[in-house]
Amino acid sequence: MTTSGTVTHAERIRATVVEYLAAVADGSGADIAALYAEDATLEDPVGSAPRTGRAAIAEFYRALEGSRRATELLALRVTGSCAAFHFRVVTETGGRVHEVEPIDVMTFDDQARITSMRAYWAPSDMRQR
Fold first, then answer.
1. Which of 5, 9, 82, 88 sits 20 to 30 Å CA-CA off 76?
2. Where would I find the SnoaL-like domain in this sequence (predicted)?
């Protein structure tokens, strides 16, 4: 239960998810990785080789740099120290526009930093516009 002036852990997690989507839309690889714990893991998409540590995670997200991007949160559920959310990301690069709607599942530490992220999507889910 939230009391006046008190921010719950769930609210901090929600804020981190919103900040994550804003960074995916407008930030650098380092900006996105800064939301992760130092020893976090990332598996995007699920089934690919996991990346461990903030440096490896920043390198993964650097692939987005130089493209125009937009994100939209479609649904978010938070329970305990976990969040699952469905969102849309539109990426424009080289005159091509790609859209995908992954479902990400994240775990968080006590400071609401991301400790793990698993993205559920497949190349067949990608659409060109």
1. 5
2. 17-116
- Closest CA relative to residue 89, chosen from 126, 61, 124, 120: 126
Task: Sort residue 32 into left (φ over 0), alpha (ψ -120 to 50) or beta.
Answer: alpha
Residue 3 lies in a domain: no
- Structural domain range at position 101: 9-128
Residues in the chain: 129
Looking at the domain assignment, is residue 2 inside a domain? no
Active-site amino acid positions: 20, 44
Count the neighbouring beta carbons within 10 Å of the beta carbon of residue 5: 5
Q: Could you tell me how far CA 62 lies from the centroid of its own chain? A: 13
**39 domain residue, yes or no:** yes
Distance CA(42)–CA(70), nearest Å, equals 21
Q: Summarize pLDDT for 32-66 with one digit per residue, the tens.
A: 999 999 999 999 999 999 999 999 999 999 999 99
Domains held by the chain: number: 1
| Global pTM exceeds 0.85 | yes
